[in-house]
Amino acid sequence: MDQPKIERLLRLMQMLTGNRNYTIQEIAVKLNMTTRSIYRYIDTFRAAGFVMKREGNIHRIDKSSKYFKDISSLIHFTEEEAWILKSAIENIDENNLIKQNLKRKLSTVYNYKILAETVVKGKNAQVVNHLVEAIEQKKKVILKKYSSANSKMVSDRFVEPFGFTTNYIQIWAYEPESGKNKLFKLSRISDVEITNHDWECEEHHQAGHIDIFRISSYQLLPVKLKLGLRAARLLMEEYPLSEKDLNMVNDNEWILETDVCSYEGVGRFVMGLLNEIEIIESEDFIDFINKRMDTCKAKEPSFQTDTAEIKTM
User: Which one of 50, 73, 193, 270 is most buried, counting C-beta atoms within 10 A?
Assistant: First the structure.
């Protein structure tokens, strides 16, 4: 079997054992394969001794399979090993991209509960564990005393949780009352109550995108900026994941080319450093910044337009 086929096989195994359920059609799209090939690989797993489960169009590798247990034992960490590993990672500077990558890679090795205990701290670990249990059992939960940044209100939220973001900072959940998939920040959840109600809207569960400015949505908008050295350093310090989309032109110039979920996050950053950033793309983003500047001038008559000139290419 050649390397591309092995890679697809391993990626398929990961999707069939992960914490999110995919239909055969969804897997085929994500792996750029035909559904016929997916079924052929599933037959290969079954012939190799893996126990396959099926619920409708959802296929899973049963984690009780003998070979699955053998593979898991090769990458299992004892409690002491996990603690040492966690301590070593935590000692890395918080804004270091390597630290973010290590935590993300750990999430592909650990199951959610182990990772919660070794990477997530304090109250958040308990919240994660309750959410993990709810996801595994496909139960609805009540997010107790959730503090919303949008409504500025504290209230209980009745949702169907189905997936975590990187480093367990937020949880994707479907809210039946609003009929929308939403992100809930774990630090704003007081506690999680697992109910006896099963999921009813699994077909609507859909995780959106999260950009480097930590904004989420189901759309992506292209943005290209030229940054001075100070702006580039501030960007990497405040938004570590931006490093992957930054390219150095010379010692004093950097290019950021990325997709954002909205102009809000990148707009706030650019507005704070207007004299050190040039907008290369897009025209829509330039219009967004111009409108924000007009709003600022209307609210603050003393707003200096000469110090807030937008540079474009």
Answer: 270
Amino acid 306: pLDDT:
44
DSSP annotation string for 247-274:
EEEETTEEEEEEEES-HHHHHHHHHTTG
Note the pTM of the prediction, 2 decimals: 0.52
Specify the pairing of strand 58-61 against strand 180-185.
unpaired
User: Torsion-angle region of residue 25: left (phi > 0), alpha (psi -120 to 50) or beta?
Assistant: alpha
pLDDT of residue 90: 63
d(CA 232, CA 194): 44
**Measured between alpha carbons, how far is 63 from 66 in angstroms, rounded to an integer?**
8
Task: Please answer whether residues 38 and 27 qualify as being in contact, where contact means their C-beta atoms are separated by less than 8 angstroms.
Answer: yes
Give 142-182 pLDDT, tens digit per residue: 999 999 877 788 999 999 999 887 667 788 999 999 999 99
Q: Which residues of 143-181 are buried (b: 16+ CB within 10 A; e: fewer)?
A: beebeeeeeeeeeebebbbbbbbebbebbbbbbeeeeeb
**Phi, psi of 146, rounded to the nearest 5 degrees:** -75, 130
Token pair for residue 76? 């299992």
To 10 degrees, the CA torsion angle through 30, 31, 34, 38?
Answer: -110
Tens digit of pLDDT for each residue in 37-80?
Answer: 888 888 888 887 777 888 877 888 776 655 555 554 544 455 45
Task: Calculate ∠ Cα 113-157-103, nearest 5°.
Answer: 30
- Among 219, 97, 224, smallest CA distance to 167 is for 97
Residue 210 pLDDT: 83
Residues 6 or more apart whose Cβ sits within 8 Å of residue 292: 267, 271
| Alpha helices per DSSP H over the chain | 3-17, 24-31, 35-47, 66-74, 79-90, 97-109, 112-118, 122-137, 229-238, 263-271, 283-299
Half-sphere exposure in the Cβ direction for 139 (13 Å, CA): 16
The tokens for 34 are 């035909």
Concatenated DSSP letters for 87-126? HHHHTS-TT-HHHHHHHHHHHHHS-HHHHHHHTS-HHHHH
